[in-house]
Every structure is written in C-alpha cells, then in structure tokens.
Amino acid sequence: MPFIRHADDSELSWSVTIESLSNLDNRRLTMSLKNQNVVITGGGSGIGAATARALVDAGANVVIAGRNLDKLQEICKYKPESMFAVSADVADRSSVDQLFAAAQEKLGSIDILINAAGINVPKRMMHNLDPADWDRMMDINATGTFNCMRLALSQMRERKAGTIINISSVAGIRAAALGGVGYNASKFAATALGISAGDEEKEHGIRITNIYPGEVDTPILDNRPSPVTDEHRARILQPEDVVATIMLVLQLPARARVPELTIIPTTQSFI
C-alpha cells in the first residue's frame, strides 16, 4: 500500500513524499475515454478544437460542429479516422436535429457532449448594444446550449449514462463590465440551465458540469472593444489549460460528479 512520509519536525520546511503510487489500480481512479462517442459544438477553433484533438488522442471518436465547414474539415485532418465535421448552427433547432442525426449515423449513441459554441460582440454596453446582437448572443450562448443538451439527454437517459460539459465563462457567475450586458446575461442563463438540468439528470446517471473559464486566448478576444495585445494574450489562459480541466472531469469515475468548476488566469481578479 502507498504511504506518506513526513519530514522531521526539526526541518525548517515541510515536505511530503508519496511512495508506491504505481501499486494503485488506476482503472479504479479514472474512466477510459477509448471508443467514447463525443459531439463538440464550437469545434472550429479555440477551446472546442483543442478539446477535439485531446479527446481523439485519448481514443475517443469525435464529431465537431460549427458554422464554418472549411475550418472544421481542416481540424479533422489531425486524425481523420476519428474526427468528423458537421456544419451546424446551434441556434437553429432544425440544424441541431440534423447535427445529432449525422453524429448518430457516424458514431452511434452519444456518450459525451461538449457545448463550446459562444459569441460576443464589440459594442456590448447597454448604451450601444444592438437588440439584434442581444438576440443572437442569447440564441447561441443560452438557447443553443439548451438545444444540444435536449437531444443529447434523450440518448443518454436510455442508457442511464453520459456526460455533458458546458463551457460557459466566469461572466456566467460574475457580471463584470468586460463581458457586456448581453454576454453576461446569456452566460448566467446557461449557468442556471446547467445547474438545474444537472440536478434533474443525476438520477439517470448523467453528469452535467458547467466550466467557467476566465480570460482565454481564443478568437472571441478579436471582438473586444479595444484590441488585445500579444503581451496580454500570453499572460492569460490558453485553450489547453481549459482542456486540462475538461479531461479531468471526463476521466473521473461515474460515481463522481463536478457540478461547477472555475479556472482563471493567475493574474485575473475573482471578486
């Protein structure tokens, strides 16, 4: 059995050594992602694309969805035998119906859904936000998440198993001016959706997690009211940092559920 050896009390600093970890049966600690069938929205760039690559590396089969088919197909070149591109607009229910029909045809039943689609706009303050932009943000960031969850859950309930991860934003739990009123409101709506549905679906063996990243160096930064410098981009989270949290949640055993998880840059305030 592994044991922990503490440093002598006389030492100025404490250290902990964990030995014999190799004797642990890791199969009891993590769930394999091999042959898991995954749908990822917002898969054409940023967190969605990085997650797709990580999952196929772990042995999963992945359908990535988005509005730009050329981008999706380019990403699928990474492992074309395990990655499939489907053009879809999550705000359009008929398009989402077609997405899940295509995913089921290509992969079979869906085990994992990653909702990574999201938008923001440059003119985002109350005094200059276009009502059409408000509608579009709500349609994609909130309603789009609902549209995809609804169809994924219909498959997962039959098997009494499945995991959904909603890539929200720290703007969904902290309404700061940086995000803007429409983005903040849409992300708060998605937060409530994930928490409420997660509580309902736990009885069916389904796990739903909201992940709230702080600033991440993804294309959404291109829509900031003021340009983001290269120096700032280098200081904030990178997509692979968020992917690490996604993989952590997905590889937990089925008995463990993470309702909410926040990850922010070391330098970002959380007040």
Give an account of the 3D structure:
With 271 residues, this protein is an alpha/beta fold. The protein has one domain (31-263): NAD(P)-binding Rossmann-like Domain (Rossmann fold, 3-Layer(aba) Sandwich). The chain has helices at 46-57, 69-76, 93-107, 131-159, 181-201, 230-235, 239-250; strands spanning 3-6, 16-19, 37-41, 61-66, 83-87, 112-115, 162-167, 206-213, 260-263. A seven-stranded parallel sheet has the order 5-4-3-6-7-8-9, with helices on both faces. The longest helix has 29 residues, at 131-159. It is globular and about 45 Å long. The N and C termini lie far apart (42 Å).
Any idea what the CATH architecture is? 3-Layer(aba) Sandwich
Number of strands: 9
- Give the CATH H-level superfamily: NAD(P)-binding Rossmann-like Domain
Distance between the termini: 42 Å
**Count of spatially separate domains:** 1
Structural category: alpha/beta
Lateral strand order in the biggest sheet: 5-4-3-6-7-8-9
Give the count of helical stretches.
Answer: 7
Helix content percent band? 25-40%
Q: Supply the CATH class.
A: Alpha Beta
Q: What is the ordering of alpha helices and beta strands?
A: EEEHEHEHEHEHEHHE
**Main beta-sheet strand count, sense and barrel state:** 7 strands, parallel
Please state the CA-atom Rg, rounded to the nearest Å. 20 Å
Mean of residue pLDDT? 91
Tell me the overall shape.
globular
